[in-house]
Amino acid sequence: MVRHQDKTSPVEPPPDLQGEEATALVNADRRRGRGARSNVTGRFETDARAEFDDGWESLGELDAFKTEVFEDAAKSVISRNDSPDVSFGSSINPYRGCEHGCIYCYARPSHCYLGHSAGLDFETKLYAKTHAAALLEREFAKPSYQPETIALGGNTDPYQPIERSRRITRSILEVLARTQHPVGIITKSALVARDIDILKPMAELGLAKVAVSITTLDRRVARAMEPRAATPAKRLETVRRLSDAGIPVTVMVAPIVPGLTDHEIEGILEAARSAGARDAGYVLLRLPLEIKDLIREWLHEEFPDRADRVISLLRSMHGGRDYTPEFGLRQRGNGPYATQIAARFRLAKTRLSLGESRLSLRNDLFLRPGGRGQQLELL
Q1: How many domains does the chain have?
Q2: 8-state DSSP, 248
Q3: Residues 141 and 268 in one domain
Q4: Domain boundary residue among 61, 94, 110?
Q5: How far apart are the first and last CA of the chain?
Q6: Which of 50-54, 80-84, 213-217 shows the lowest per-residue confidence on average (mean pLDDT)?
Q7: Which residue range forms the structural domain that includes residue 129?
Q8: Mind listing the pLDDT tens digit for each residue in 34-47?
């Protein structure tokens, strides 16, 4: 049964449904294979929805959450960023929402701007920017455009499962390759290896690099935390395949979950180095907006023995709060535990000779579309 209530007041279950039966968690069968445990209404909506069992087993009649893909009628495709603690100024996200279902994803709250939930909606209601490649080429053709490295996938994964059929990311890479424009890819998917035929010649010109996210080497933890992403072993294999092709690879230990995955820092970096990674970086788990509740639900169901410790450690790194939004602190935290993590990471990188030289991609080879006999593509 679905209960509607005005958003100005919190959703409360009926008096006779207090306790465990009043939980906001979605029935396990309906969310099988997904990351989030709930689907609380987005923060911008005037009405809130909450599920509860009315005793008539009505929840059992509801269908399981299925992936839906909508067309995103975007008019531009490049997003600009001026955050001082983010390494790129321009990015392209071929999709909104992400079927990987990573419970920690910092992009989840952005789905609320579309009228959806940051919970299960984020991983089941996806938006595809079908005309992204044509829009990008049009942007590049402007006389005012100045090339700088574009991050492909700064918000959601450009190689999430629907890319296999949609191929929007590949079409964007084709434009980048044709115009000799620098690109840095961020992904946790093995599908990126499909595009080695494009990335290899770009890398030879100093135009491409890839960052692969590896949060844990524990297959069970990864399955629970990132249910539809590649396994840790597949990600390491992907690092090796990219590296063997001459494509520079950075491994991102992101996010580090204190009390759950932080003991794996050295092991992940060692495995990454053995697979051919040249550099590594990390980000601590962040709990802005809806994520703080989603993470708590997930922890108490998947790791009840460690849930309180994880939250306690996170709060100790944010001045007793769930999250510190200030630049410089939001991704690394502060305090003794944060300092210890930073020191361990730095020492491990030094020991493994990771990041000895920072790779800068070239901007001077750019070929503006429409010049030198090139013709613009039409939508």
Answers
A1: 2
A2: -
A3: yes
A4: 61
A5: 44
A6: 50-54
A7: 68-280
A8: 999 999 987 877 66
